[in-house]
């Protein structure tokens, strides 16, 4: 087998994608699977890659933002009938839009925070009117709508002046933003892991909430997630919400889901189709609960990519 590992992503997370690619490459090497890494930081490079892409049996997509997470690369690979890891183009596109995905989740009777969208052309006066019309009050959470992961760029603001002060820096990340009511509570992160042809769902509680600080969250030196001794009632509700979402959206690849828990209330926040591969990331952490190593995860991604394409295109 020959595997092409593609690396793409936004500038502030690109180094994480590069590290993840090296991890996958090493694992594939240990499995005696030939692989090459190609960086798609610039979209123009894709033209050159497409000239020889059919020489590979599968593309292993690693992307934290960019064309590998928003469905573009997946669509191109579909047109070439090349198997790839991760979710389908449609799923990737829908999940990348935090506002649209949240809006759809409400139709499933899944509780989500009050949410509205803004862009860089809106005045602070118009933003204030939206806060009032949506019956929201401070503190609020602002986050990029499209162009960031689930931690970077998440900002809690305590008043309108604080909102206005942070707006310019947030608009540098993404000119389209999502504003949500702040839910006091704890972050719970779910890993939905494909093991052969079924999902295994694991639940964890974050030691540091995503709205606290991006660097502190990843550089605290502690285990990032608590996986044992979680309240059974909360676990059950989160797993129920997760299964509804996985089924409705026809999620077809390993992913993670973010929830905020306040007392006994569970709020769905978002779903990420690209998971972290470092040892302390949530999917590898929860995979251990099912007896799966990092090697097993990568093998599962490949198996899923190959069998999915076999079902569609006769591979």
TrEMBL record:
One of its GO terms (molecular function) is metal ion binding. Residues 102-303 form the ATP-grasp domain. The keyword Transmembrane helix does not apply. Keywords: ATP-binding, Cell wall biogenesis/degradation, Ligase, Manganese, Nucleotide-binding. GO terms for biological process: cell wall organization. InterPro entries: ATP-grasp, ATP_grasp_subdomain_1, Dala_Dala_lig_C, PreATP-grasp_dom_sf. It comes from the Bacteria. PANTHER family: D-ALANINE--D-ALANINE LIGASE (PTHR23132), D-ALANINE--D-ALANINE LIGASE B (PTHR23132:SF23). Belongs to the D-alanine--D-alanine ligase family. This is ATP-grasp domain-containing protein.
